[in-house]
Amino acid sequence: xxxxxxTELYISVKRPGETQTDLFRLDLERNAKxxxxxxxxxxxxxxxxxxxxxxxxxxxxxxxxxxxxxxWEFPINQLVDGKPIFKYLNGIxxxxxxxxxxxxxxxxxxxxxxxxxxxxNDKISTIATNVxxxxxxxxxxxxxxxxxxxxxxxxxxEKNLYRRNEPARTLIETLPGAEHFxxxxxxxxxxxxxxxxxxxxKFIDDTWTEAVDLRFYEIRNIYDxxxxxxxxxxxxxx
Length: 238
Description:
The chain is mainly β and 238 residues long. The chain has a domain at 1-90. The protein contains no helices and 22 strands. The protein has strands at 2-3, 8-13, 22-27, 32-35, 42-48, 54-63, 66-75, 83-84, 92-97, 102-107, 113-118, 124-129, 131-137, 143-147, 155-159, 169-173, 181-183, 189-193, 196-200, 209-213, 222-227, 233-237. It has a four-stranded antiparallel β-sheet, with no helix packed on it. A hairpin with a 4-residue loop joins strand 1 and strand 2. The protein starts with a strand and ends with a strand.
């Protein structure tokens, strides 16, 4: 899911009887929904682009027996068809817009990679390897991501995007085996594990603190969460 505004939430949905996922827009103010894509391919990971009038999403294209993950852009008003953002770059499983020309992309390789790609020249600069697929911008403008390890505890790292030659620094260890996190506008981190949400604010917390248990809502396994600018929280869970 992705908040395009405080009252608009875009989600990817696989409806009963369909094999592909399509994008839907939820109007939280009017309690209404609108189908955004209806294609033979699957689309997921919608994000509003920096120029505001367009949005991007990952489209899964079939080329023979292979599934190709390519980043596309679409107009918000849906008056014309979308188009690929990159001519050759594919395999993108997650991404985040830094500005109108730079995207942070995650590729599920061996090891997994986190890179910054320039859309004007397709230049790729890898900033981390063996990472989780969840990453986001911090209130100070830097990038937060999960550094995985086969032998050590996983850590949420902070990468300085203004001095990119500096090594990333550790913010906090993740909950054991967890990698799905989000950041509130005030800098508080949220992490889900099982039915519980935990919070961490470096100014008041020493470690993760349980914030709420959502079992009452029949939520058992949180595996994605996003936050709106006005502190709304959208959760994907079993």
